[in-house]
């Protein structure tokens, strides 16, 4: 049975704050064991940050997002 989940409509780079226009809902049939953000929870995702690169069209998993920026203000990352 298909359920509604959130998915990205564009590339979201790691550390980028997620906006409403980068998200939409999609009705798909996936196993209940697969972690995915329910479609009715997209408002909670808006304003959070991508923990990693999220390709366009990806079903959103809770592990892909976080409430705070990847790098604290005043800090930097060298790679």
Secondary-structure map with pairings?
Blueprint: E1 3-8, E2 23-28, H1 42-45, E3 49-50, E4 65-66
Antiparallel strand pairs: 1-2, 3-4
Mean pLDDT: 92
Query: Could you give the count of β-strands?
Result: 4
Secondary structure: helix percent = under 10%
Gross geometry: elongated
Spatial separation of the terminal alpha carbons: 44 Å
The low-pLDDT segments are none
CA radius of gyration is: 13 Å
SSE string, helices as H and strands as E: EEHEE
Beta content comes to 15-25%
Could you give a short account of the major beta sheet?
2 strands, antiparallel
Oligomer: single chain
Structural class call reads mainly beta
Strand order of the largest sheet: 1-2
Continuous helix count: 1
Tags for this model:
79 residues; mainly beta; two-stranded antiparallel sheet; two-stranded antiparallel ribbon; 1 helix; 4 strands; 20% strand; elongated
Structural overview:
The protein is mainly beta. It has one helix spanning 42-45; strands at 3-8, 23-28, 49-50, 65-66. The strands form 2 sheets. A two-stranded antiparallel sheet has the order 1-2. The protein has a two-stranded antiparallel ribbon with strand order 3-4. The longest helix has 4 residues, at 42-45. The chain starts with a strand and ends in a 13-residue tail after the last strand.
């Amino acid at each position: 049975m298909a359920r509604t989940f959130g998915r990205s409509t564009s590339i979201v780079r790691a550390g980028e704050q997620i906006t409403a226009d980068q998200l939409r809902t999609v009705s798909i049939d996936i196993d209940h064991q697969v972690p995915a953000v329910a479609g009715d929870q997209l408002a909670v995702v808006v304003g959070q940050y991508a923990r990693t690169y999220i390709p366009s069209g990806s079903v959103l998993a809770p592990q892909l997002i976080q409430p705070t920026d990847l790098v604290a203000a005043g800090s930097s990352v060298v790679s």
